[in-house]
Amino acid sequence: MNKNNFKTFVLLAALGGFLVLIGGQIWGGNGAAIGLIIGLVFVGGSYWFSDKIAIAASRAKPVSEQEAPALYRIVRELAMANNMPMPRLYMTPDMQPNAFATGRNERRAVIAATRGLVELLDESEVRGVLAHELSHVKNKDILIGSVAAAIAMGITFIARMAMWGAVFGGGSSDDEGGNPIGLLAMAILAPIAALLLQAAVSRSREFEADHDAAEMIGTGEPLARALEKLHEGTKQIPMKVDPAQASMYIANPLTGRRAGFAQLFSTHPPMEERVQRLRSQTPFTR
């Protein structure tokens, strides 16, 4: 297990630990098991339906080879070179240049590009972006990201139950799971901690996908140029995206409306650092 995969495992384990901890605080002795069960339900749903959820949320539609011959040619060449199945290709109507990958495994993978990406980037830059997304598929990042998001959603769900219990139920006795003040504090702080951990998972996988995409196409320059254009596009062209889905995209689609303090919660590493790493040939974080 390389450094990056180990870090991802630790972060996912920490997210799962929050579920158990919050469950114990709410329901006492049996609460840890209840929290774990709720987490497994969220993770199971994410595993089986992640592609459908992402496609519906982005309003993406299947695109045929006749409609997008260049996209099909590039993805087919990259997939064949890496002994991977051809993913399904989708396109969203958004003019913000961006792209994402989803699906629970290589055979269920979907790569979606926005209309803005196809219109703004040249073919070499599009190849860099598609190689990045195919790297996510190859590295199973689409599953890891879905699981991280599902666990974070589970934590938020349980934390809200804790808040309701603390505010309206007056809390339970110490033997049953803690006092109202402790429940209220956990209800507020646990989702924030979960968001930080989810963001750390996503950021580490983005560096890895950039590195592998550069290896796929033999150079990091096309992807570096593409990322620069995407960064400007995300700042200038808004896109309606659920914050829970933002981590899927190659560039943070919420960049243009992100407050300064929200950098702490960003699911993407700084774009300048990604571009610099691609152009410097220095080792990527693993």
Report on this structure.
It is built from 9 helices and 4 strands; from the N terminus they run H-H-E-H-E-E-E-H-H-H-H-H-H. The protein is mostly helical and 286 residues long. The protein has one domain (3-280). The chain has a 4-stranded mixed beta sheet with strand order 1-2-4-3, with helices on both faces. The chain is elongated and about 60 Å long. It starts with a helix and ends in a 6-residue tail after the last helix.
List keywords for this structure.
286 residues; mainly alpha; 4 strands; elongated
Q: In total, how many domains does the architecture comprise? A: 1
* Percentage of residues assigned to helices: 55-70%
Average pLDDT reading: 78
Q: How many beta-strand segments? A: 4
Structural class: mainly alpha
Largest sheet: 4 strands, mixed
The parts where pLDDT drops under 50 for at least 5 residues are 170-177
Distance between the termini: 10 Å
N-to-C series of helices and strands: HHEHEEEHHHHHH
